[in-house]
Amino acid sequence: MRAAEIVSAPQPILDLASNDYLGLSRDPEVVVAAQAACASDGVGAGGSRLVTGTRPVHMELEAELAGWLGRHRALLFPSGFQANLAAVLALADRHSLVIADRLIHHSLLTGVAASGARLRRFAHNDLAQLERRLSEARRERPQQRLLVLSESLFSMEGTSPDVPALAALCDRFGAALLLDEAHALGVLGSGGRGLGHGISSIALISGTFGKAFGSGGAFLAGGELVMEWLLQSSGAFRYTTALAPPLAAGALAALRLIQQRHAEAGGDGAPTVPQTGLLKRAQRWRDGLEAAGWPRPPGAGPILPLLVGSDERALALQQQLEAAGLLAVAIRPPTVPEGTARLRLVLRADLPGGTLERLLHALGAP
User: Residue 291: its pLDDT value, please?
Assistant: First the structure.
């Protein structure tokens, strides 16, 4: 073979973009649980939940989720997009007004469009502006159904609202609150149960298994009335093949691991060991990036957006990091507003030591 024909093996690349916050997608207990479900129940469910698709693992996962979150019931969905669509359609119709954080996920906006409700926005995490929107709505149409949409950890911003204050505001004006906890569960709140845990006035909690749980699929959790309404009326739940049994089994194993680690860390008042380490590490990364002259990523969780402004610079930095063996994806409009292109850095509990130093070296001077 001539030297020119020799193809070198691809260099390993370290993933700094995945949402597998706790590293559970490769945890042996999660993998074994999914493999066992695949062997016993098959790869797919073969039907919708109300026909032939329900397996014991679906009901176990729903019951344990509801208990963990302190909600009456949970229902599983094949994807987070479907769950958010179903949630909005359960809480709003063409007679409703939806007031949404300006940076909510596209799935929630799709739900609003499908519901026929009117939509108004408030500035990101600006509860003073939300209060004005709610006050105006009640003054103009006192009996109108109101729905507020927000997230507990915004996936492209890394920021969180003051959830207790948000819920109290909605309660004061008689507005239902739908809180998307997809990126917070397993990471934020007591025992990783999200920032909405213990706030009974929240109408629905939306969550996914494709992030900190290391599996796939999603769920909604709420009170008896709204969950029964979803069961009886939601096309997104009724008319789709049930969540694949291996994914449900993996999610159940991950939930039990999160609870077990939390219990070992000291019970109800203490966060989980991986959760604690992850948040401390996120603080160190923010400090390190700021000390190196980069804009300090907002928030306190494991999502660290490094704002660089132009699309071209974000793409150039992505390529620069990739050449150094690091994967960090450039996020550009329309996913984020014009002029706010960024590298979305994501911390995971299983990242090797020295990763921050390696990142700073690869980034170079701002």
Answer: 96
> Using one digit for the tens of pLDDT, what is the confidence trace for 97-107?
999 999 999 99
Q: What is the DSSP letter of 221?
A: E
Structure-token pair, residue 100: 């949404």
Contact, 169 vs 131, CB < 8 A?
A: yes
Of 20, 62, 180, 181, the catalytic one is: 180
Q: Given 58, 197, 211, 262, which residue is catalytic?
A: 211
pTM for this entry? 0.93
* Cβ pair 348, 302 in contact under 8 A: yes
- Please determine whether the domains at 14-21+271-363 and 26-263 fall in the same fold group of CATH: no
**Fold (topology level) of 26-263:** Aspartate Aminotransferase; domain 2 (3.40.640)
For the chain, the structural domain boundaries read 14-21+271-363, 26-263
CB 328 within 8 A of CB 303: no
Catalytic residue among 25, 96, 115, 155: 155
Burial 112-144, CB ≥16 within 10 A → b, else e: beebebebebbebbebeebeebbeebbeeeeee
| Residue-wise pLDDT tens digits, 41-85 | 999 999 999 999 999 999 999 999 999 999 999 999 999 999 999
| Three-state DSSP string of 122-191 | ECCCCHHHHHHHHHHHHHHCCCCCEEEEEECCCCCCCCCCCHHHHHHHHHHCCCEEEEECCCCCCCCCHH
Active site residue 105: yes
Residue 180: active-site member: yes
Query: Of the residues 27, 151, 157, 181, which is catalytic?
Result: 151
Q: Which of 27, 101, 105, 107 is catalytic?
A: 105
Residue 228 among the catalytic residues: no
Q: 14-21+271-363 architecture in CATH?
A: Alpha-Beta Complex (3.90)
Q: Is 124 a catalytic residue?
A: no
Residue 151 known to be catalytic = yes
